[in-house]
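Notebook B, p. 112. Complex prediction, attempt 2.
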Amino acid sequence: MLSFILRRLLIAIPTILLISVFVFTLQKLLPGDPILAMAGEERDPATIEFLREKYRLNDPIPVQYVTWVGNALTGDLGISLRTNQPVLELIGQKLPVTIQLATMAMIFALVIGIPAGILSAIRKGTLTDYVANVVALSGLSIPNFWLGIMLILLVSVKWQLLPASGYVPFGEDPLRSIQVMLMPAFVLGTALAATLMRHTRSAMLSVLTSDYVRTARAKGLSERRVILRHAFRNALTPIVTLSALLFGELIAGAVLTEQIFTVPGFGKLIVDAVFTRDYAVVQGIVLVTAVGFIIMNLLADVAYVLLNPRLRGQ
Amino acid sequence: MTLSRLPLAAALLGATALGAQAQDLRIGLASDADVLDPDQSRTFVGRIVYASLCDKLVDITPELEIVPQLATDWSFNDDNTALTLTLREGVTFHDGTPFDAEAVARNIERSQTLEESRRKSELSSIENVEVLGDHQIRLDLGQPDVTVLAQLADRAGMMISPDAADEAGADFGSNPVCSGPFSFAERVAQDRIVLEAFDDYWNADEIHLDSVTYLPIPDTTVRLANLQSGDLDIIDRLGATDLAQVQGGGGGITVEEAVSLGYQGITFNVDNGERGDNPWGNDARLRRALSLAVGRGIINDVVFNGVYRGGNQPFPPTSPWYDEDFPVPERDVEAARALLEEAGYPDGIDLEVQVPNRPENLQVMQVVQSMASEAGIRVSITSKEFASMLQDQSAGAFTGSQVGWSGRIDPDGNIHQFLTTEGGINDSGYSNEEVDRLLNEARTVSDDAERKELYDEARAILNEDLPIMYLYHQTWLTGLAEGVEGFTAYPDGMMRLEGVRLAE
């Protein structure tokens, strides 16, 4: 198991390097001078030149890249052009916010998606199945920003039940923190719940027709035991992969959701950074996200092996 | 959800505290401020935060008169080459350092010499600073320059604790120390900036709030929703199209309005690089034709529900510097067609205009496009992300550019750098000796009436040449929740919190 994990980690290194080159060059291709974007209305040529030098923007791009990678290896991701804060510190501030959002969204997605998927699989062709399918399809089709704004208008403005936007750190006031995050997590979770439901349903359907399930039924086991212990556990493998892959979708979705609900997380940080051409911040976030994504996939692989004994020893 | 979980959900939903705010004001801003160092910062919202954090040497009234703040009195010498200021006594910075003439001198030096400083051009006319006494100082100017006083009513005039500034250097913004009514408490990027009332403030009697929290919420709808749900007390820049709904919608929300100091318009590439050599850059008649074809009132009614102000000058019609001899023109499609024909384009002409990819700007240009088409001008709109657009604009890679300016207190700030030959932001590449002479001279005259005559003379020329075609002036719409009292809107869009309180 350990060598498996190590091997996977080694493979990850070139992937991360490739991603970093990709992001670095793509970003430099973006039109718009970062210093000019920063200067806005005050364009004093001497200051602009000084800042270009200070942030090494006059160096050739390969030199800039090597400098950046060198610094990144020592844990220095640079300084935000916009607020002068170290990028690592900014990411450290934002990461817990997005993790909280993603976790709560994932809980929503799992709690809604998996039971709905199981239910619609075992009641295939009944009204329950159709209703679950319609709900799942709406979850996929309703745009996040529309659902977000509607929730804000109904829940916050009309009923005044939850705060419309913002963020309270969990450590500061856990209850308030969860309250503030409920709506964004729900919005982010619904789309995922729909995907999860569809996949759980099809995985369950294929497992339910397999021989060992029939055998289990023939042994006289209770239906509950057949479904949860025999069928669902085997259906879980693809669902776990999917959940790990959904992590990427979760981060992508967080970009939009954080914009709508003004959640000061990763997504908001990256959007603002792209618009202000805050290169160091964009690079830092992409790097951290890529690493996170790789770790999630690794965890998914490990989870497979744990869930499915047949894969052990391979 | 099982029954046993319901009480938890109910508790989560029901426990939202909406009331019970002491005198803690929460303000929603349209974007996040940049670095909180008055010498380095450049964003508009940053200035809104400074209005509570950092006092300036002088301030303005809603009518744009300059009034005392940290300086109680001032005078120019006869030829306007020196400005002597008398400073307020008994003022301390947030770190306890006393405020005196020495501190002012060190502040000006920092603004002029800190490498990251963005205030250099604003204070470039100051050549020497002479401390005359503990509370008196003289600024010697290289050439006559009356605009320097208005600069001191903004970031260049904000006084920061010189010791704290020396210690922090360019990193001052992470813990700013000024002398305003509130001191810096905390900042979480993109989330909040918290200020706390400063007990030793010289004008503490006028401050009724214990703390102020600024929260950046870029989406207009969400910002308004926060005001309506009671999560915010004041919001910056309510959407013009939301005004009717807010005013008719009950909920106790009131809106304070002030026409801004800035403008929006179309800048033509008259002579900036190769692309300046085009029909639109070469023939002012075409530019005048477009101006005649475009109804300013129509733009305002269609895009902004009539809340903004149509315009045709760098100063809004509400400004004391507006030239009444050139009122906002009525739309005249026939005259526009006649001018096109005279210029040799009886069958119409194409015009490409770049626009920032923001809904409001795009809508404005679409309205311009449809009005212009009736006169035979076929406008094509190229929407660009703002940073790219600015770059193309300063590089001269455009024919027309829909761009604006946030505005300055002194009229010079809205016109000189755009329309004089050597102007720092003269992206149009416009050059006219007479205009240069008039605008340069206007800097040297301290009598307002005399100054206005010079601007009016320049206006007569610029109205014919039209390197910039002004379209409209934004109105600052500040939304106030029920219970917010004593707020006044200013044309500079700043939120001054003296006298503001929350009703119990």
